[in-house]
């Protein structure tokens, strides 16, 4: 019987959904984060159940040929990236395996074939949005990510995924915060001011900064942000977000524009999209272009179709489709995203699009029961997938063509399973690697009525 704290030797056989490696020790399944199939490891047991246990790597005894370093072993060593210990080509192989495994287990579809697997050219520093926790160490303001399963912050110099320019500006801000001895938010006492730093950067290198605080804006903070705005010409927008809640969610309800522009803009397919601090926008622009191009190519004959863009964010896919389609209906829950989308449509003279600021659960049902004829739907839901009733409505109304973009293969497989049971066929399935160095995978699927 294993106990917490035991040191064991284990060989890793495979990667399972969620990104952890799996090996066996006396028939007990041992899950090991940051491990690679082919590794022989010394592992310390940190949790123990009847049929399985979880352990952390203490030492790499013999590295897998796919491991990039046998010295770096922890989540923190890889800046919080749970696949960065695996060479890039192999990361893709494991993502394919994970998608195959969930489709077989959940959707009961075996041996899926991938239409396309679109790799990234830029595999580091690709993120266009960054949020860090602010903390305090040895009299200095620091920022970074929480260590795994802890609320201790770890700070890294040149973070693997973040744009270098943002790292530079964050360093400047933290030095100024330290100098002025601004207080740091303490989540246990619910006291102190500085909570998070957030930044967005667009393809032109323009930056939006958001400082998330509890309480009121004090003049020292305002002065630091004014100096930042004047010093860095590429910082085009600075907000303070007030978050007085006891929550892990970073942004607050009140977002106050201090300097510069209300939104940052990103150009995709010749449309300038507006993005506010709280709006959703895909975090990897190079891969987003490929993702949208591929998803749009899955529609058969867009011209003269009425298409719904469900879970539409800032309206990107719908507006790109609107160039060819007859009519687009975009449904999005978040008010700021919907407002950004409306602004973008106006500025780019797009008029054949209707924005519905509502849940897909309500908005889609109403639309499908209205006089509008709907030919096709593109879904891009959050991780929890499509709500069951909405899916049933789509099935009942016999919508022939569904494109489904998903950031969570297990809820995708669940929803595809339901569609297949109800007379749809899986026509195409592709992967776009939006999140290199992490186990996250973006999948695009085309379903049609048979
Ligand atoms: C993965 S994002 C996709 C956004 C967009 N398609 C894009 O590519 O930028 C999911 C979006 O769904 C929205 N959302 C979440 N739950 C929703 C719901 N129940 N109804 C409508 N929109 C929802 C989120 O605010 C977010 O903008």
From TrEMBL:
SUPFAM superfamilies in the cross-refs: Nucleic acid-binding proteins (SSF50249), S-adenosyl-L-methionine-dependent methyltransferases (SSF53335)
A Pfam family of this chain: TRAM
Annotated catalytic residues: 407, 407 (nucleophile)
Example of a GO biological process term: rRNA base methylation
Keywords: Methyltransferase, S-adenosyl-L-methionine, Transferase
Domain TRAM, chain residue ranges per copy: 1-59
InterPro entries reported in the protein's UniProt record: MeTrfase_TrmA_AS, MeTrfase_TrmA_CS, NA-bd_OB-fold, SAM-dependent_MTases_sf, TRAM_dom, U5_MeTrfase_fam
Annotated residues for binding of S-adenosyl-L-methionine: 282, 311, 332, 380
The keyword RNA-binding appears for this protein: no
One function term, GO molecular function aspect: rRNA (uridine-C5-)-methyltransferase activity
Family under the similarity heading: Belongs to the class I-like SAM-binding methyltransferase superfamily. RNA M5U methyltransferase family.
Protein name: 23S rRNA (Uracil1939-C5)-methyltransferase
């Amino acid at each position: 019987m294993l106990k917490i704290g035991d040191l064991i030797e284990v060989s890793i056989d495979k990667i399972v959904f969620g990104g952890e490696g799996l090996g066996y020790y006396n028939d007990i399944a041992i899950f090991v984060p940051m491990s690679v199939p082919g590794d022989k490891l010394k592992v310390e047991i940190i949790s123990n159940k009847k049929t399985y246990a979880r352990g952390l790597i203490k030492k790499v005894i013999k590295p897998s040929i796919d491991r990039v370093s046998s010295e770096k072993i922890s989540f923190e060593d890889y800046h919080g990236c749970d696949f960065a210990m695996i060479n890039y080509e192999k990361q893709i192989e494991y993502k394919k395996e994970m998608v195959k495994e969930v489709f077989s287990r959940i959707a009961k579809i075996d041996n899926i074939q991938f239409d396309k697997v679109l790799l990234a050219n830029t595999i580091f520093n690709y993120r266009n949005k960054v949020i860090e926790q602010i903390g305090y160490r040895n009299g200095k303001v620091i920022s970074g990510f929480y260590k795994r399963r802890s609320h201790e912050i770890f700070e890294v110099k040149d973070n693997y995924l973040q744009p270098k320019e943002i790292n530079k500006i964050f360093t400047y801000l933290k030095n100024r915060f330290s100098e002025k001895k601004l207080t740091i938010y303490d989540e246990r006492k619910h006291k102190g001011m500085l909570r998070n730093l957030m930044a967005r950067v667009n393809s032109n290198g323009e930056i939006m900064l958001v400082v998330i605080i509890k309480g009121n804006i004090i003049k020292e903070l305002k002065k630091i942000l004014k100096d930042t705005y004047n010093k860095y010409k590429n910082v085009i927008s600075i907000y303070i977000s007030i978050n007085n809640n006891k929550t892990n969610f970073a942004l607050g309800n009140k977002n106050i524009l201090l300097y510069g522009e209300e939104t940052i803009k990103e150009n995709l397919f010749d449309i300038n999209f507006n993005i506010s601090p709280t709006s959703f926008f895909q975090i990897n622009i190079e891969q987003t272009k490929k993702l949208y191009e591929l998803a749009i190519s899955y529609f058969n004959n867009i011209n003269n179709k009425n298409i719904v863009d469900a879970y539409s964010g800032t309206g990107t896919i719908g507006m790109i489709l609107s160039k060819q389609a007859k009519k687009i209906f975009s449904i999005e829950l978040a008010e700021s995203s919907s407002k950004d989308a409306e602004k973008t449509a106006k500025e780019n003279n797009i008029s054949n699009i209707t924005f519905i600021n509502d849940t897909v659960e309500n908005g889609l049902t109403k639309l499908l029961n209205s006089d509008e004829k709907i030919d096709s739907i593109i879904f891009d839901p959050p991780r929890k997938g499509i709500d069951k009733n909405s899916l049933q409505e789509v099935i009942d109304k016999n919508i022939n063509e569904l494109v489904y973009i998903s950031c969570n293969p297990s809820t995708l497989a669940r929803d595809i399973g339901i569609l297949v049971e109800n007379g749809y066929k899986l026509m195409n399935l592709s992967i776009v690697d939006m999140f290199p160095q992490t186990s996250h995978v973006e999948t695009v699927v085309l379903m049609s009525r048979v």
